[in-house]
Amino acid sequence: MSRFPEAPKSLLVHAANRSNNQPSTRPTADELRAARRAQVGREELEGPHPSTLGADLSDAGLAHADPTQPGPGQRWSTWRSVAKGQRGPEPLPDWLVTRDAAFDTELGILKTGKEADAFLIERAVPPGAVTPSDGGSSDGGSSTSAERCLLVAKRYRSLEHGQFHRGTEYTEGRRTRRTRDQRAMEDRKSAWGRAVSATQWADAEFVALRSLWSAGAPVPYPVQIDGTEVLMEFVGTEVTDDAGGVQAVAAPRLTRERPSDDLLESYWEQLTHGMSVLARLGFAHGDLSPYNILADGERLVIIDLPQVVDLVANPFASDVLLRDCRTVCAWFTARGLDVDPDVLFADLLAQAL
């Protein structure tokens, strides 16, 4: 996985519960993760994140002597450094930056988890930057790629550093692309087996996102995968404050929302559509809940899919799917919408089979 150069601590953004636009100092990454898990609830890990481009570039401390080279907390765009099969499906969205001259700038942590952390990344082309191989045009013409976009980098931890190991309930029936990797995963004592196991969750999520996005499911666009790092679409908005500073605000989880009756019905239709797409592709989410669904205004976006379950090959699939149905139906029922988890389960199972 491509790593960012070590950035000065003054550049690292404390993403949770920010009250101003100034970057704040923080302890080491391990200390920060431990403190957040002990003191901060997962709903509180959403908030504004200052952008480093435009009027705030100098204030953020990312301006440096040579603007054509990555500075602290930056790296070259990794779009072309990964194989074509490790990139998102076509057609590519208009907002995605694919130019070679782009920098990836790490802005801060969006969310911490037991097996992975999510970081906010700004991929942007510096003003005037040009490289001989730049752009997506094969005939040498100018690129139509966007100049700037926000991404989420979900980075899975190794087995030694993760605090949560998903059970065989999810992985039963799942196979890797190469049989030798499958054999290695079954031998956790070998170094290769541990390395393959550490990447299986990232690979499973990326493959699921590719299939679901192409089929029209409400999921983030999967930009690329590089080892244990999955880059995907940032779901949220950008706002400008009175001082001219730009902030990226992540969409809240569904569990925090109190929608009107009309919007609640729309949310239900969107969610059941997404679950239907999953079922028709032979999948169950496996961990679907209001915590794994984002409410981006009037649209829902399903996230966190590393544990997708094969509805045919996994003997626990029916139990997992029924649990998903009961969990989401309980939230909608508590808000006044009359929905039946057993009816939803039967409908999804029929579509899968």
TrEMBL record:
Molecular-function GO term, any one: kinase activity
RIO kinase domain residues: 71-350
Basic and acidic residues bias: start-end ranges: 28-47
Polar residues: compositionally biased ranges: 17-27
Enzyme class: transferase
Catalytic activity, as annotated: L-seryl-[protein] + ATP = O-phospho-L-seryl-[protein] + ADP + H(+); L-threonyl-[protein] + ATP = O-phospho-L-threonyl-[protein] + ADP + H(+)
Entry EC number(s): 2.7.11.1
Keywords recorded for this protein, A-Z: ATP-binding, Kinase, Magnesium, Metal-binding, Nucleotide-binding, Serine/threonine-protein kinase, Transferase
Stretches for region Disordered: 1-93
Entry-linked Gene3D superfamilies: Phosphorylase Kinase, domain 1, Transferase(Phosphotransferase) domain 1
Similarity annotation: Belongs to the protein kinase superfamily. RIO-type Ser/Thr kinase family.
PANTHER family named in the record: SERINE/THREONINE-PROTEIN KINASE RIO1
Protein name as it appears in the record: non-specific serine/threonine protein kinase
Taxonomic classification: Bacteria, Bacillati, Actinomycetota, Actinomycetes, Micrococcales
